[in-house]
Amino acid sequence: MNERSDCPINLTLEVIGDKWTLLIIRDIIFGDRRHFRELLTKSNEGISSNILADRLKTLMSEDILTREDDPTHKQKGIYSLTEKGIALLPILAEMGAWGYKYLPVSEELGVRAQVLRDGGPKMRTDFMDELRARHLGTKPRRTRGASVSERLQSAYEDAMARKTKNSRAAKRA
Amino acid sequence: MNERSDCPINLTLEVIGDKWTLLIIRDIIFGDRRHFRELLTKSNEGISSNILADRLKTLMSEDILTREDDPTHKQKGIYSLTEKGIALLPILAEMGAWGYKYLPVSEELGVRAQVLRDGGPKMRTDFMDELRARHLGTKPRRTRGASVSERLQSAYEDAMARKTKNSRAAKRA
DNA sequence: TGCAACCGGTTGCAAAATGCAAGTGGTATG
DNA sequence: CATACCACTTGCATTTTGCAACCGGTTGCA
Fold first, then answer.
1. How far apart are CA B129 and CA B143, in angstroms?
2. Which of A25, A155, B31, B53 is at 20 to 30 A from A171, Cα to Cα?
3. d(CA B60, CA B80)
4. How far apart are the first and last CA of chain B?
5. Mean of pLDDT values over B79-95
6. What's the confidence (pLDDT) of residue B173?
7. Of the candidates B11, B23, B101, which has its C-beta nearest A103's C-beta?
8. Which residues contact B165 (CB under 8 A, 6 or more apart)?
């Protein structure tokens, strides 16, 4: 499938238009997965290792990810987002918002999309700044209060706590 | 591929995560293609008829498109977006903006993405209102000046005119 | 009235992408 | 020294895609 057209949407789809690529980016962004093994085993969907290896290769050749050796462990590689990769966040945010609104999303997994949607454009740019600090080594812009990552994480944990509490309540009933 | 997870991004990708679905939506939204034949022949990428038929079927079963008979022509169907389909616009807009910034987009085909990006959130909601009028029959909200469709279209035509002018100039040289 | 062009698809088949399980060579850990 | 972990690769069956030809029906026109 080469060079179908130079339309921006088409070119974007030729890079990220499959079922796995954006899930990998999602796990890197929202789950801070940085190693092959983490991406392979700690995701909800169960990608297979050949597909993961192939997509990581493509993402590196597209300059969306880079890979360095982990100094603490000779075999481990650390994958990092480039600026181009970080710039995918708005697409993920819109997809999350759409899915949250129109598809049968579970409460625990939907809460991040909800928080990010309600946080508006400011939360997106703050989050992208945090990702730059984490992946590109730029110095973190000091903010008061919890970071976006922390807010997303605690929203997720609250939802999980509510869920297990409810399921215990259901069992008692 | 059933039920990988109930994450909003994953569920969204299960619906629109392939190389053709969003191109069809793009042609309906930005090119006002409403018939099978139009979608088949008037797009830049050349989808094949079996894939188009399959995707239209899926999009209808997902409640993103509806189909009615064209009263002027017994065989023609008219495809219309639902509210859920119109709500895909922000995803397309973000993909367009990302592709425009990071990929080798042609001037003529990129100008729509550029205009839509620079128009900000207001242009998006205005455009979605226009789409509701066109596809759902809601009454058009009266605005002064050109509609978003018209602005996008004339930006495209200007870019095309510049292009042919330049290519004539190049031939003369 | 006859005929060509157009309508929305379907069918058959080859090629490519995906999914799964097992395997590889090397490294850290107790 | 054994076991577990590391990032992948390989082989093979299944699924999806891409291409071209074809289908019965409709429309416009001479």
1. 11
2. A155
3. 10
4. 56
5. 98
6. 58
7. B11
8. none
CA dist., res. B173 & res. B163, Å (int) = 15
pLDDT band at B143 (very low <50, low <70, confident <90, very high): confident
**B24 contacts B59 by C-beta, under 8 angstroms:** yes
Give, in order, the Cα–Cα distances in Å from A164 to each of A1, A161, B140. Answer: 46, 5, 47
Residue type, A70: D
Sign of CA dihedral B36, B42, B44, B48: positive
Closest partner residue to A22 (CB to CB) among B9, B90, B106 is B9
Indicate the Cα dihedral angle B83, B84, B90, B93, nearest 10°.
Answer: -90
| Residues constituting chain B | 173
Closest to A112 (Cα-Cα) out of A31, A28, A8, A24: A31
A56 CB-to-strand D distance under 7 Å: yes
Long-range contact set of residues A44-49: C-beta below 8 Å, sequence gap at least 24: A44/A109, A44/B4, A44/B5, A44/B7, A44/B10, A45/B4, A45/B5, A45/B7, A45/B10, A46/B4, A47/A20, A47/A23
Q: What does the pLDDT look like over A126-163, one tens digit per residue?
A: 999 999 999 999 998 888 899 999 999 999 999 999 98
Instruction: Report CB contact under 8 Å: A44, B97.
Output: no
**Confidence band of A1 (pLDDT split at 50, 70, 90):** very low
Taking the C-alpha atoms of residue B95 and residue B101, their distance in angstroms, rounded to an integer, is 10
Measured CA to CA, the distance from residue B131 to residue B1 in angstroms comes to 32
pTM here? 0.94
More confident: A66 or A167: A66
Q: What gap in Å lies between CA B69 and CA B54, rounded to an integer?
A: 18
Q: Which residues make Cβ contacts (< 8 Å) with residue B88, sequence separation at least 6? A: A98, B16, B22, B25, B29, B64
Return chain B residues 62..121 having CB < 7 Å to nucleic acid strand D. Answer: 73-75
> What is the DSSP secondary structure assignment for residue A79, as one 8-state letter?
E
Inspect the interface and report whether the beta carbons of B8 and A84 lie closer than 8 Å.
no
CA-to-CA separations, A91 to A85, B6, B57, B90, B165, in angstroms, rounded: 11, 18, 25, 8, 35
